[in-house]
Amino acid sequence: MKVSFEGVGEQVLSFEKASGTEKNVFVKLSANNTVAACAAGDKFAGYCISTDDSFAVVKTHGYIEVSYTGTAPAVGYANLAADVGGKVKKADTGREYLVVKVDTSAAVVGFIM
Predict the structure, then answer these.
(1) Of 4, 31, 32, 86, which is most buried, counting CB atoms within 10 Å of its CB?
(2) What DSSP designation does 41 have?
(3) Among positive and negative, which fits the CA dihedral 15, 22, 72, 80?
């Protein structure tokens, strides 16, 4: 049997998107019903999994695996914030998430939003 966290508490919402918002980046709310790409250090509302001309599909809850920068977070609860290029980083001011996987050789972290 394989360990899997896919689909656990998953929630996906659609928002209007601000200019420059792309797939595979962390997003924040920038106006009513609208998301924009996060800057480094921002707290994120979710991860953009799809876009079209006007809308962004955003995963706001559930399991996600992404690359991290800087110091590897530890397994357990860790504060994470957005970083450039759809990555996350360990941060003092980020939100707390449950980290269930850390692959230091690939610089990948798996956590539940």
Answers:
(1) 86
(2) T
(3) negative
Pairing of strands 34-37, 26-31: antiparallel
DSSP character string of 62-84: SEEEEEEESSPPPSEEEEEEEEG
What SS3 class is residue 86? Answer: helix
Q: Report d(CA 36, CA 60) in Å as an integer.
A: 14
Query: Over the stretch 75-112, which tens digit does the pLDDT of each residue have?
Result: 999 999 999 999 999 998 879 999 999 999 999 999 99
Q: Are 75 and 101 in contact (CB under 8 A)?
A: yes
Other Cβ atoms less than 10 A from the Cβ of 91: the count is 19
pLDDT at position 112: 97
55 Ramachandran zone, left/alpha/beta (phi>0; psi -120 to 50): beta
Residue 82 burial by Cβ neighbours in a 10 Å radius (0-12, 13-18, 19+): buried
